[in-house]
Amino acid sequence: MLKLFDHEHLDLDNLSDDLTAIRVEDLSLQFGNKHVLENISMRIPKHRVTALIGQSGCGKSTLISSFNRMNDLNPQCRYQGQIYIGDRDINNKKQNVSELRTQVGMVFQRPNPFPMSIYENVCYGLKLQGIKVRRQLDDAVERALKDAALWKEVKDRLFESASVLSGGQQQRLVIARALALKPDILLLDEPTSALDPLTTLFIEELIAELKHRCTIIIVTHNMQQAARVSDYTAFLHQGRLIEYSDSDTLFTTPEQKQTEDYITGRYG
Amino acid sequence: MRQIAFNTHISGKFNTELEDLRNSVLTMGGEVEQQLIDTLKAIRLNHSGLAEKVALNDLRINSMEIQIDKECMRIIAKRHPTASDLRLVMIISKAITDIERMGDEIERMARLVTKQKIPNSESVKSSMLSIGEKVVAMMRGTFDAFARQDDNSALEVYDQDNRIDSEYKRLLAYIVKEMESSNESMQDWLEILWALRSLERVGDRCKNICEYVVTLTRGEDIRHTPLENLSQTLENLE
């Protein structure tokens, strides 16, 4: 029979290692006595956009923060289980966390440019890595700003303060700052919740472009956004992974009643 | 003519999805049009092999309907289309039902050949083929109007259906006379009448799709509007 549409639906339960960006195995996490994540196992595919959805407090931000060990900043954090990037368990105490955060970039809800010029913002991480050659920095800044679809708007004012940029531009600047380090994985925690609807669509389009360069994981409260931007979606409830599948299936014919109730607004 | 640009969304992927969806309807329409051309040829040449092929090919058309419907549902769930985008998805979902039914009607006509029930009367056969050619032209006009979002052409095609209906009624009256003097069994004549009815229904389905084109371009639902009120309704929209 003639196939009219071609939508990729990877088998996430049997994803091969070469297609896997992150492999989570039996991850449980608690802050003090509060269990936030319980026995999460999943494979996140490379060069795809994966969305984490669920109501507030379900553990989605904690899960995404586990992928670059941001939870370590909370002294009460305890975790069990493994998170593999390649064949390396990043939960291993010997893991170099700075190196990990270079490989796994993160963008937060509110744009947080540093109080310095646009240029300095983008090359901040590179300078920390010890790169000082001006030509190298110039090239990296241009490339990152182009990748973040911001170059045309700022190329003539690179040395102006980043604070003069609009909210949407600041968020793209922060994305450029992360991209300058050429991350394999980019974590986006509610990246558009502080932006207007049109700017949000531009950022979403940027996300669709960026997945060709790196794996993207996005946390969003906005289910419509998850449906629009993601290739795969994981629904979490009370720290458990309830359903994880391609977004086409999850948003049209979810398997679990809890998922159906959540995405149809019947959640009580 | 009111053209809606479906390729100007911020999301390039959404543009592609809508374009693919529109193209899929034209692919399905093209298949059904070819089915009718083949059926008419099979009737003309009494070619049962070709008619068999038409009957088998209907499965392809059924599969296309399911795929396109699923894609419409996927786009609604994932893209939350609004305004002209929503109208496009909704009318496509309806149009493919009409196209699939056209396929069924054509398959019924093709069975006339496989069952060896082609009319013996040359004048009945040639009138049937003549209506068939007009329906093919109407289908072509319908899918062109859909592709170009040309509501004026859609309304012209809409009008062609009335001429096909008149020709169909004349042929029916002629057949009734023929039946009285013919040696063919009543069962054979009924098969021919059903096939003719199917042909006429294909024209009606084209008319439905033309109505959807107007809904898409003008945002007005002209179904069930009497023909005499139609031009006034459309003028009010100008």
UniProtKB/TrEMBL annotation, chain A:
Signal peptide: none annotated. This is Phosphate ABC transporter ATP-binding protein. GO terms for molecular function: ATP binding. Gene3D superfamilies: P-loop containing nucleotide triphosphate hydrolases. Keywords: ATP-binding, Cell inner membrane, Cell membrane, Membrane, Nucleotide-binding, Phosphate transport, Translocase, Transport. PROSITE patterns: ABC_TRANSPORTER_1 (PS00211), ABC_TRANSPORTER_2 (PS50893). InterPro entries: AAA+_ATPase, ABC_transporter-like_ATP-bd, ABC_transporter-like_CS, P-loop_NTPase, PstB-like. The gene is pstB. It comes from Salinimonas profundi. NCBIfam families: 3a0107s01c2 (TIGR00972). SMART domains: AAA. Residues 22-263 form the ABC transporter domain.
Automatic annotation (TrEMBL), chain B:
Gene3D superfamilies: Phosphate transport system protein phou homolog 2, domain 2 (1.20.58.220). InterPro entries: PhoU (IPR028366), PhoU-like_sf (IPR038078), PhoU_dom (IPR026022). Its main location: cytoplasm. Residues 26-113, 130-213 form the PhoU domain. Keywords: Cytoplasm, Phosphate transport, Transport. It is found in: Cytoplasm. Pfam families: PhoU (PF01895). The keyword Iron-sulfur does not apply. GO terms for biological process: intracellular phosphate ion homeostasis; negative regulation of phosphate metabolic process; phosphate ion transport. GO terms for cellular component: cytoplasm. It comes from the Bacteria. The keyword Disulfide bond does not apply. Homodimer. NCBIfam families: phoU_full. Plays a role in the regulation of phosphate uptake. Belongs to the PhoU family. This is Phosphate-specific transport system accessory protein PhoU.
